[in-house]
Amino acid sequence: MYQNPELMLTLAHDHQRDLIAEADRTRLFSRINRARKAQRGSHARSTRGPSH
User: Fold this and answer.
1) Residue 28 exposure: Cα atoms within 13 Å on the Cβ side
2) What does the alpha-carbon distance between residue 48 and residue 6 come to, in Å, rounded to a whole number?
3) What is the band of 25 on the pLDDT scale with cuts at 50, 70, 90?
4) pTM, whole model, 2 decimals?
5) Residue 21 — left, alpha, or beta (φ > 0 → left; ψ -120 to 50 → alpha)?
C-alpha cells in the first residue's frame, strides 16, 4: 500500500475531508445549542405551542 503514492494521497485527502466534516458538525451543533440557550434565557414563553 505504501508503494503507491497516488493511493496514499487519496487516503490522506479522504481523511482530511472526514476531519473537516467532523469539525463542521461540531461547529453547527455548538451554534444551535448556543442559539437555543440564548432563546431560552431571553424569554420564558415556550416556542413549541401555537404562536398567536
Assistant:
1) 6
2) 52
3) very high
4) 0.59
5) alpha
